[in-house]
Write a structure and sequence with these properties.
73 strands, alpha/beta
Length: 959
């Protein structure tokens, strides 16, 4: 009959009354009829699927309200899976059609119950032939002793689930069996409901109450649409078994225990289970790689912070000056006190020495000819840098190629991208070995899955909630977790220790009472593309020689550190977005280490990175921004190599560190932070400290006791930072610009080296040395356009200033009240004096090139003393060179200095030739240096050691 003879709607109505075999025959008539049968997906196929007593809704128990993509396909998969137990003796060449029905010939159906042929299961088994169907009639069936299953049979409960209850302990000795549609309860003499050590058993649509299943290799099992109430499964040395669409409720121990290395002695059913596992892939939730750093909640639990906020990284605009931390307020308060002191001091000096007034007129130049005067007396220093690839300072906003490139490079990768690039992760994700657990629900019990003694399990699309722990993997075992939801556990969500490994990818881990992922004692997993958020403690903890690769995760909204590393933990942390934490983004304490590279760390309440108590990580190429406190804290004997990071827009300091910790701060961009760019202290300052009691109540006692003796033998090779000689804290090759207070604030009693940095356009001093009982070496830096002095040295401080370029600062170039050496610097174009010595300053000032446009090149006040010798002083508009009160003539030696005057048309390109090796701003117009903080100092890309001063005189040749 032609399909076109009736409307399609009528055909669909007619076909919806057919039974399953008739639908199959109709689909074979022709393509048009086949399409008609397929069109019944949401009507007849749905009825057949939900009406079958051997299985439940395809998305039960996790999403029973969500319809599958195809009801027909779901019904087909369930039907094929239910026939796996019959395939143990089939010929490989037999057709699929014959294989499904070849056992039906001569197969008997034996009824068990009061109205049946047999009164007990034991009696029916004694009379059964292979592949008979034993039907348990409604009621309670109790077996007094252990039941031995010696022939392959199918045991099915009649009626709805719950109508048949079986109280027995069954021991399978046959190669295959299937049990369906009944409630299992343990016999009085044992808690074991079912066990097998050699055969394959299949459970469909069963309930297990207060008992245990024991499956030992080479035996195996397939469990589908079953409920385990206070019951568990123990699997030993499984080569391959499958648990699908099951619910585990109220377990007193682990719901599933996987023990032992997968057996090489594979059961006949393993090849069929592998085919099913590949064809029946769990429905996956697609991640949103574009949603980072601000991921949407996707209905996966509420964040402790409420809706996840977006973190817009605004470049170049003025930063807010209010602070969220008490310590930050105290730091800012101390900066304000220093500012007031300097203002009062300057007012007193101007009263005492009126000649220092910067507004004094010049007899040779008219006051209204200021621009022409600047053109005459301005010394060009823009060519003093050694890196000619730096960007121009031309835009009113911060246009940082490095920042935008970093943001582009740090875009969060999807799991698919990660698997394409990481062959090991791809191999793990595709592996089918051990226990396969898919689309199951574990809830309201002690433990979810326990894997030990080299066991292996793969968990996919499951939910773990309201447990003590979700997954515990120890003793060289391996766990593969893909797209699971783990939340509200009373301890850690995932716990790995004792050299455990595996792949934890694309999971949603949130709202757990302890760490989302806990890695200890040599465990070394791959942790990729997860959402780890809203935890009551840390997101990830790496403890006690734990390792691991932690990559491309979103870690946010946790009450403690997003990643917490301690007791020789040494993970590789890269490409993560760590944001909106209520403590530090990453905390490294108690001799923790780690390679921390290429992460975005933003909007955290404490420091973006917090290093203390012997923590010694390597941090490279991270973006640490928009924090509510300091960008980075290195204190309490913290160490580390901090290199190539962008530390931007934090409401505290860019970097707060203790010089006694000997950190190395190299080639970072530190800009637009609300207080200091870099603050260096010598001891714990309670006014500027932040609580670091993260995890103090966590159980780290074992790691604490064993931390001293469990170092890996190859740790020195794998961790180059441990090999570098460290004797002095180092701040080198950094760009420190547009910060709300001093660019570099030093209050330290330990030695400190400040080498080859760009310190530009900060809202206070460029470098402020307020305390320095040991030598602070400031060498080869470019210090320009800061709102106050280029360098301030307070009384009793020891400083060596060598080879710096100090340009166009809004006040004096250098103000010193301390002791030390000022040599071979270019102090040019500052708005007040080039160099000012105050109070009891005792400095050796030699071989500097100094020019002040309106004021003295060198001014000495009070009891200042020392040696001022062989300096080249360029005359400015004021015709002032050196101011020295006669009261300290005996203590201060001034000799062999050269005063250079010139005319308007003189070619000044030769005046500052052959500068020392230092960074610079290339191409910037002189006028741009005094602009607002929207400008950009380019990062350092090249540094040449040495300099001209080591080989000869700095003086220019005047022709």
């Amino acid at each position: 009959m032609e399909v076109s003879s009736l409307p399609v709607e009528l055909w669909q109505l007619i076909l919806s009354y057919l039974r399953l075999p008739d639908l199959g025959r109709c689909s074979l008539v022709c393509r048009a009829w086949y399409e008609l049968v397929l069109s019944l997906d949401k009507t007849r196929w749905r009825q057949l699927c939900l009406g079958c007593l051997e299985h439940r809704h395809p998305n039960w128990p996790n999403q029973p309200s969500v319809e599958p993509r195809s009801w027909r396909e779901a019904f087909k998969q369930h039907y094929l899976a239910s026939k796996t137990w019959t395939k143990n003796t089939q010929d490989l060449e037999s057709s699929n059609c014959l294989s499904l029905f070849r056992r039906r010939k001569g197969r008997r159906q034996l009824c068990i119950g009061a109205a049946g042929e047999f009164s007990s299961l034991r009696a029916a088994l004694a009379a059964a032939s292979p592949y008979d169907c034993l039907v348990l009639l409604p009621g309670v069936h109790e077996e007094q002793g252990e039941v031995l299953l010696k022939v392959p049979v199918e045991v099915v409960g009649q009626g709805n689930l719950g109508d048949v209850a079986l109280l027995a302990s069954i021991d399978q000795h046959c190669p295959t069996a299937r049990l369906c549609n009944m409630v299992f309860m343990p016999a009085r003499f044992t808690s074991v409901l079912y066990k097998t050590t050699s055969g394959y058993v299949q459970f469909d649509n069963c309930n297990f109450e207060s008992g245990q299943l024991q499956i030992h290799a080479p035996g195996t099992c397939q469990v589908k649409f079953c409920t385990f109430s206070q019951s568990s499964i123990h699997l030993r040395s499984m080569a391959l078994c499958v648990l699908e669409n099951c619910e585990f409720v109220g377990s007193e121990n682990a719901s599933v225990t996987v023990e032992g290395c997968p057996s090489s002695d594979r059961n006949w059913a393993c090849k069929h289970l592998a085919v099913l596992a590949k064809s029946c892939t769990a429905s996956m939730r697609e991640p949103d790689p574009a949603g980072c750093p601000m991921a949407k909640q996707d209905g996966w639990g509420e964040s402790l912070l409420g809706p996840v906020r977006t973190c817009e990284i605004v470049v170049g605009e003025e930063q807010s000056s209010f602070l969220s931390a008490v310590g930050a307020q105290a730091l800012l308060g101390s900066a304000q006190e220093d500012t007031e002191f300097r203002e009062n001091l300057q007012a007193a000096k101007e009263e005492e020495y009126p000649a220092l007034n910067s507004n004094s007129s010049d007899s040779d130049l008219h006051s209204d000819d200021e621009e022409d005067a600047q053109a005459v007396y301005k010394l060009p220093y823009q060519a003093h840098g050694l890196s000619h690839t730096l960007a121009d300072v031309t835009h009113s906003r911060l246009q940082s190629n490095r920042l935008h490139a970093l943001q582009r490079d740090l875009k969060l990768k999807s799991l698919q991208q990660e698997l394409q690039q990481d062959k090991e992760a791809q191999s793990l994700a595709n592996s089918l070995q051990g226990c396969i657990i898919r689309q199951c629900l574990f809830r309201d019990g002690k433990g979810g899955i326990f894997i030990y003694a080299q066991g292996q399990a793969k968990l996919e699309g499951s939910i773990f909630r309201d447990l003590t722990y979700a997954v515990r993997c120890i003793q060289n075992s391996k766990v593969i977790m893909l797209r699971n939801d783990i939340h509200h556990c009373k301890a850690s969500g995932i716990f790995l220790r004792l050299s455990a490994g595996g792949l934890i990818a694309d999971n949603n881990i949130h709202s757990n009472c302890e760490a989302g992922v806990d890695i200890r004692k040599g465990a070394n997993p791959l942790v990729l593309c997860n959402k780890i958020h809203s935890g009551l403690r840390s997101g990830i903890v790496v403890v006690g020689n734990g390792k691991g690769i932690i990559r491309s995760n979103q870690i946010y909204g946790n009450k403690e550190a997003g990643i917490y590393i301690l007791y020789n933990g040494n993970p590789t942390v890269s490409g993560n977005h760590i944001f909106q934490g209520l403590a530090a983004g990453i905390a490294v304490n108690e001799n923790g280490r780690g390679q921390i590279t290429g992460n975005i760390i933003c909007e955290n309440q404490w420091g973006g990175v917090d290093i203390r108590h012997g923590g010694d990580p390597v941090l490279r190429n991270n973006l640490i921004s928009c924090g509510y406190s300091d960008g980075m804290v290195v204190g309490d004997h913290g160490k580390g190599l901090i290199e190539g990071n962008v530390i931007y827009g934090n409401k505290g300091c860019g970097v707060w560190m203790m010089s006694s910790s000997l950190p190395h701060l190299i080639n970072n961009e530190i800009s637009h932070n609300s207080i200091y760019g870099v603050a260096v202290f010598c001891r714990k300052d309670h006014t500027a400290d932040y609580s670091h009691g993260q995890g103090r109540s966590e159980s780290f006692q074992e790691e604490r006791e064993g931390a001293g003796g469990e170092n890996d033998s190859d740790s020195e090779e794998d961790y180059p930072a441990a090999q570098r000689p460290i004797s002095v804290a180092l701040v080198e090759l950094n760009s420190i610009n547009h910060n709300g207070a001093a660019g570099l604030h030093v209050k330290s009693s330990e030695a400190l080296n400040i080498i080859a940095n760009v310190i530009h356009a900060n809202c206070d001093d460029g470098v402020a040395v307020l305390q320095s009982s040991q030598l602070t070496c400031i060498a080869n830096n470019s210090i320009s356009c800061n709102s106050r002095e280029g360098v301030l040295v307070e009384a009793e401080c020891q400083v060596e200033l060598r080879g710096n370029g100090i340009y166009e600062n809004s006040s004096h170039g250098i103000v010193s009240k301390g002791e030390g050496v000022i040599t071979e610097n270019d102090i040019i174009g500052n708005h007040r004096c080039g160099l000012q010595l105050l109070q009891a300053a005792d400095m050796k000032v030699t071989k500097n090139r100094i020019q002040s446009f309106r004021d003295y090149g060198i001014a000495l006040f009070d009891e200042a003393k020392g040696l001022v010798q062989e300096n080249l002083i360029f005359q400015g508009t004021s015709k002032k060179s050196i101011l020295r009160p006669m009261s300290n003539a005996e203590d201060c030696t001034i000799q062999n200095n050269v005063l250079l005057t010139f005319k308007k048309r003189f070619d000044m390109e030769c005046m500052l030739i052959n500068p020392p090796a230092r960074p610079h701003i290339e191409g910037g117009a002189p006028e741009s240096c005094t602009a607002t903080d929207g400008q950009r100092v380019s990062s350092i890309t090249t540094r040449v050691d040495g300099g001209c001063h080591n080989r000869g005189s700095i003086f220019c040749t005047i022709l």
